[in-house]
Write a structure and sequence with these properties.
Keywords: Signal. The chain has 6 helices and 17 strands. By secondary structure, the chain is mainly beta.
Length: 458
């Protein structure tokens, strides 16, 4: 088939680049279900994702190479995803939420994504996601994860070694406590969100290239080490992305360790992540030059989770991560965008979910951020600013979902899947305050957000 041979050429070229130390900038989709012959519920809690079951984690760490599907569709590596929504905050933002949108009560086609995904051969596979962003009306290269991997004979305890190319720290991670695939799995791009986030939470996701090596021993111990560099200006333009806090001055080391236990339809794991980044701040035109000096970010994160899967009738998950970030912002001080060099930022994210028959789900999430007061870094501004220079925020997220398909025997399975959801985010603190947090009269509760969404893939 021409499509299949083209896909093998693309992935084969990417895997060759892995071996050479270069990369191109990934998502779980029906193409994987047709390839494996398994319903979406086999890999994903709630029959949709992106939260993975132990089977799903094994498929990912195995390089997306497992087979089992039948017929021509098992070799078709293309899928499409659509996400549409309605967003309403407790109080309008005093102006358009984004270009071409009103201040409140907005319907949107959040994104349209095309995936090229699947195995190349027994040792290589991955996925590439291209997205049209309906909010900004722009195309960009989205999550990307390409792998070369092989099992190693060590006797009774299996060992798998792999090389991975991805476009951001935690995009390649198999656990949903981490940031790229963590709850909330979708959220409104038209609602205000807290300004302070650790670098590990997304500052290098989508705008960098990472190459890492990993080992998975006895389907329990996971170890990974890699390096990340942000794109250059040309690649930023080509992929439709932009810098977060700035450009990496040197490769940013990333370390990951986790240990998982699986027993009697249950699983649990604990893990840790380390990321250190030397960043040329993005102020003015200095993102690539480093003329103003550099900012240094060091993230230390601990995460873990528990899943009760049973026979699939009642599924319970608990996931959490704590990140402590040490910041030395000498470059931003020189640029006039930080009040002092030495800062710290902390964040906790945790959620618990329940699904009945992999169809009806409810999730409660909690996100708390706190750190050093910095009046220039967290300056007053309408809606997005902080009146007291504090990064502290606290939110509770409630979500109810209905997934009618994605199980064995579902209509049009596994080609069509749908998730309908209602999400409400409640803020008790936002950018350092509960009342008049921005210095312009806005309260934290004004940003409470109702988000209704329809998420379909085929």
């Amino acid at each position: 088939m021409r499509i299949l041979s083209s896909w093998r050429f693309v992935l084969g070229t990417a895997c060759l680049l892995i071996a050479c130390g270069a990369a191109r900038p990934a998502a779980a989709i029906p193409a994987f279900a047709t390839q494996t012959g398994q319903p979406c519920a086999a890999c994903h809690v709630g029959a949709y994702g992106p939260q993975l079951t132990p089977f799903g984690r094994a498929f990912k760490l195995g390089g997306y190479t497992q087979t089992g599907g039948q017929g021509w569709q098992s070799a078709l590596p293309v899928s499409l995803m659509l996400l549409g929504s309605y967003t309403n905050t407790d109080k309008g933002q005093g102006g358009p939420a984004s270009e071409h949108y009103g201040a409140n009560g907005n319907f949107a086609m959040d994104q349209i994504s095309v995936f090229l995904a699947g195995r190349v051969n027994d040792y290589a596979g991955g996925f590439i996601q291209g997205t049209f962003d309906g909010i900004t009306s722009a195309f960009h290269l989205d999550n990307t994860d390409l792998r070369v991997t092989a099992p190693i004979n060590t006797g009774d305890s299996p060992l798998r070694l792999g090389l991975d190319v991805n476009n951001g720290p935690t995009v390649q991670d198999p656990f949903n406590s981490t940031y790229a695939w963590g709850f909330p799995y979708v959220a409104s791009a038209l609602a205000p969100t807290p300004g302070a986030q650790p670098l590990l939470a997304g500052g290098l996701i989508g705008n960098s290239v990472g190459v890492s090596a990993y080992a998975w021993y006895d389907q329990a111990l996971y170890l990974e080490a890699g390096l990340y560099n942000t794109y250059g200006p040309t690649l930023l333009r080509m992929t439709g992305t932009e810098y977060g806090p700035g450009a990496t001055n040197s490769p940013a080391p990333y370390l990951r360790a986790a240990y998982e236990w699986d027993w009697n339809g249950q699983s649990a794991y604990v893990g840790a992540i380390f990321l250190h980044s030397d960043i040329n701040p993005a102020a003015a035109s200095y993102a690539a030059s480093g003329v103003l000096g550099r900012d240094h970010y060091t993230d230390y994160a601990l995460d873990g989770g528990y899943q009760f899967l049973g026979d699939g009738t009642n599924v319970v998950s608990f996931l959490g991560i704590f990140d402590h970030e040490v910041q030395n912002l000498g470059g931003s001080v020189a640029a006039g965008t930080s009040s002092q060099s030495n800062n710290a930022l902390n964040q906790i994210r945790a959620n618990i979910s329940y699904y009945y028959q992999q169809t009806y789900g409810v999730t409660l999430g909690w996100q708390k951020t706190w750190g050093t007061t910095n009046p220039l870094l967290y300056a007053p501004a309408p809606v997005s600013g902080s009146a007291n220079g504090s990064p502290n925020s606290n939110a509770f997220i409630f979500e109810a979902d209905w997934v009618p398909f994605g199980k064995a025997g579902s209509w049009a399975g596994p080609w069509v899947n749908l998730k309908l959801g209602a999400q409400y985010t409640l803020y008790t603190q936002f950018n350092g305050g509960s009342s008049n947090y921005d210095g312009y009269g806005r309260n934290a509760m004004d940003n409470n957000t109702l988000y209704l969404f329809a998420w379909v893939s085929f």
